[in-house]
């Protein structure tokens, strides 16, 4: 392990995510800690609902200032990634429960009111029954109108990839459209947002998405490294000199850890980020570069060397547990969209 790095696997009842501070990277300690927690939550490595260490526990284990940890927790709280419960501690924010099914008691009340109104206007029970049967028969006919899903991401190309992940699971006729936060900020995607039945957002961008779509229910989804990314890293020649380029400096330690997780056999590794002064030097000295989504410019900076993107996919557990139930709930007849 690097002599400038400190790490810990915190021995609390529900938290086993390894956190580490690598002081040799030149990334502020608070940014490193925030990036690791944010990425761990977004990828599901830190489970939703899990209890996080207290500020005191985390500062002691990692050897960082109490105020630094408190500041990181405050930022994550503002992003909606964690919640606090007085007297109980700090927890990873849970996801909204799938929409409940229709209430049979409410249906009975609605039909009773309709029946009473029809009788009050002079219709016989036979006439009411015939009309009701006709309506039921009409409603039972298959509909060809699909559900419109909007997926909000950060980078256009990656967001289109996430949308394709979801589209592949949905029935024919449903449609998933990809837009970015910048699209929403510029109002270019306003019509798409208005026509969406279901809105999805990357988990760590949930609050930003909600702020841009007030009044809409937004479902957060996590992401995990793609199988193609894992296979490409595992196939790297152990003798190469590898450069790792993160898009945001706070995610550099986590990105470095992820690459080492799938390519532990490569020992000559240099890590930097897209806006670092040493970026070109690191790329000049490497044989192969692994870059994070959003750092595609790496390819233009080293046109004659291999450069691989570290891609993610939407977590299949979230598609199964959150997206599909929400889509099916929208398929119910006479569903009313929430206004913007």
TrEMBL record:
PROSITE patterns named among the record's database cross-references: HTH_GNTR (PS50949)
Keywords linked to the UniProt accession: DNA-binding, Transcription, Transcription regulation
Listed Pfam families: GntR
UniProt keyword Transcription present: yes
Domain of life of the organism encoding this protein: Bacteria
Domain HTH gntR-type: 27-95
SUPFAM superfamilies assigned: Winged helix' DNA-binding domain
Matching InterPro entries: Tscrpt_reg_HTH_GntR, WH-like_DNA-bd_sf, WH_DNA-bd_sf
A molecular function GO annotation: DNA binding
This protein's name: GntR family transcriptional regulator
Lineage: Bacteria, Thermotogati, Deinococcota, Deinococci, Deinococcales
